[in-house]
Amino acid sequence: MDPTIALDIPKDTNLIEIIRLGGVLTGLAVLVITWFVVRLVRGTLGRVGHRFAHRRLLINQISTLAGFTIYLTGILLAVSASVSLSREVVIALTGTAAVTVGFALKDLAASILAGVTIILDRPFQVGDRVTFGGTYGEVRSIGLRSVRLITLDDNVVTIPNNKFLTEAVSSWNYGALDMMLQLDFFVGVDQDIALAKQLVQESLTTNRYVYLKKPWMIVVNQVVHENYFAVRLRAKAHVLDVKYEQEFQTDVTERVLEAFRAHGVLPPALLHREVTDVAPKRRRVPGKDGPIGQVPAA
């Protein structure tokens, strides 16, 4: 045998030699301690975020980064305590077993690397309101394997990290507490549009959740709404804090509808109109009324 190919590898190298039986318990203890420390850090920072609301998103980002770092450190310590990384073991792991394990864990490894990419590239942050694959919600956590969203219906949606590397994600506030919202109101084309716009403006700017330090506007367009020609009044303004999104929308909508009703501004539906100036036309009968297009004699 060629001496350059021959390697000094014991023939009885197996899992018992690779795994330190005495270190397995140490590794498990490290993982348990890691999990406890992460829970403690996130719980503490979560309470701090609720106490200092104006710094809530920043504290959430620190919590995510700290948890990510602690998890990776704990896993590396547990592996180093449980596995003997001698020269012979390193050579053995480059064989078929390493390839098999690599294929089995490729999705997990891809998700972990994607998680690191999300932390560094920051397409969104913890606390952001995002839309991904038709799902809208708040980013609650960015973990080693997945991102968790909380929808407005209080449902938890778990998305693997690697999905965010190939699909588009939209962040509505991108690290800011305030967020632009838009509300649509429809009135008939025969209504007083100036009055309707004024009512929407008053309901919008006097809302307790509106953030007037950023621009707001009301855009007026003529559209087709539910098979009727209508005038759409689209109100755009920033809510003070993303956690008040639903309260803001509800309050503005209620006040606008109440104002419309009090001032007689009607929606775009013919069934709400009284048509009294149109009389039914008698059908013309050829021969009696003369040819079509000819004015009958008085």
TrEMBL record:
One of its GO terms (molecular function) is mechanosensitive monoatomic ion channel activity. Coiled coil: none annotated. The chain crosses the membrane at residues 18-41, 62-83, 89-120. GO terms for cellular component: plasma membrane. SUPFAM superfamilies: Mechanosensitive channel protein MscS (YggB), C-terminal domain, Sm-like ribonucleoproteins. It is found in: Cell membrane. The keyword Transmembrane applies. This is Potassium transporter KefA. InterPro entries: LSM_dom_sf, MscS_archaea/bacteria_type, MscS_beta-dom_sf, MscS_channel_2nd, MscS_channel_C_sf. It is a multi-pass membrane protein. Residues 107-172 form the Mechanosensitive ion channel MscS domain. Keywords: Cell membrane, Membrane, Transmembrane, Transmembrane helix.
